[in-house]
What we know:
By secondary structure, the chain is of the alpha/beta class. The chain has helices spanning 35-60, 77-95, 111-123; strands at 4-6, 14-18, 23-30, 66-75, 100-106, 129-133. It starts with a strand and ends with a strand.
Amino acid sequence: MDAIILEPTATTPKVIIDPSKDKFEISGESRPENAAKFYTPIIAWFDNYKSVLYFQKESFGKAKSVNMDFKLEYFNSTSAKFILDIFYQLEKIKKDGFEVEVIWNYDARDTDMKESGEEFSSYVPGLAVKYVEY
Length: 134
């Protein structure tokens, strides 16, 4: 599958979804004018990626793991809905028997950001989230 690589702008985060480099990251600020337009291709990518993982598992006996890094400094409420949708996609991948790790990075001074990660995690109990303070 083709990678999704988006450079950050004043209103959108940096996105690296590149399975060839085992790099899955969303970082920076997320407050796009049209969050649906920004996030829908990312959510669809993860939905389609399951077929690649199944192929890897059938062909090679094991599929790559997905280690998703969230390094958000800020996101608005509209972005939150789509970030949660990404969590749901990752949970589906995990439920289908593939290895998924979510890393929620947050500034030690920003307890709200840690709590946001914990709230997302509470909606997807089948998906373990590792919290990393920086």
